[in-house]
Amino acid sequence: MNMAHTQVRDDFNGGFDSSLKWSWKVPGNNPECTGPDPGAVSFSPTSLDISMRNGALFMGFNNIHNVPSLKLRGSQPDDWYIETAFRINWDPIDVFNYVQAGIVLFSDAANYFQLLVTRDATNQTRNVNGSTNVELGDAFAWGERTSNPWEPNNDDYIGLRVEHVPGESPMIRLLYRRSPNEEWREFETGWPATGPYQFWDWQYGAIRTILDSPNVQVGLYADNAGGGYVNTWSFDYFETNLNVVMGGDVNGDGCVDDSDLLAVLFAFGNTGDCMDEDLNGDGMVDDIDLLAVLFAFGNGC
Ligand SMILES: [Ca+2]
Ligand SMILES: [Ca+2]
Ligand SMILES: [Ca+2]
């Protein structure tokens, strides 16, 4: 059966789209949840700007911050996709620093899939590659460099896209473009490339496992591979056709109603990281969060 699914797109025009319930939560960390670092996250009129930090999701190093994500809910389309575009000033970044950014799909910090663009620090050139990472139960597996290397320009937004193509084998397609004006191209296999990258069965199995978990989040990722280097990635947009929890829906049941309003009222005045009732993620439950619920009241019910 084909179901109509809303296409979700946030262009980050000076802030998050209030119709979406963006969260900074990454469960499974110690502490159990991390919020944004002060000063690491901001918006321009056209982008979400995330400053690299030393944290990571890698194995036991579940100390990443600044991972904005949307929670999935309900049934999902079979032909799902997730897409983003980002850029950075590459000039001051040392060639031996594996800086990276891209898309993350996770149930917690121990179970995730990442599609990234990574500086090729191994060969210490200015080139970057597409790459993938998978963890199930903190067991890390690198999906190798999966696009041809290229030298990015500071001005070019790099596009990344992962899509599920029902009926194809292995049904996951990884796409990138080096600038917004390019056609999407498939990740390659081999170096130099000998053909389209073949997603491995175990990688697909991991994605299925994560998608079948009760709590799934999709979002954006950036880090500096622990190199201490601080610079800002500008994300132009985030887009997916997956069903996500909408703005104002505190309990994530698909309807903004009295229960969400009461949740905010009962938590009113509370402060701390990652409270569900803190809808704008600024560390306190106040008027702004109340208005977010009232503004969306009745949606989805
Ligand atoms: Ca934008
Ligand atoms: Ca609700
Ligand atoms: Ca708030």
What does this structure look like?
The protein is mostly beta strands and 301 residues long. Helices cover 10% and strands 30% of the residues. It has 3 helices and 16 strands. Strands 1, 2, 3, 5, 10, 11, 12 and 16 form an 8-stranded antiparallel beta sheet that branches. The model has no long low-confidence stretch (mean pLDDT 90). One calcium ion binds next to helix 2.
What is the arithmetic mean of pLDDT? 90
Roughly how many Å is the radius of gyration? 19 Å
Distance between the termini: 23 Å
Low-pLDDT runs of 5+ residues are none
Present as ligands are:
calcium ion
Overall SS class: mainly beta
Number of strands: 16
Shape: globular
Number of helices: 3
- Biggest sheet architecture: 8 strands, antiparallel
What is the succession of H and E elements? EEEEEEEEEEEEEEHEEHH
Classify the beta-strand content into a percent band.
25-35%
How helix-rich are the residues, as a percent range? Answer: 10-25%
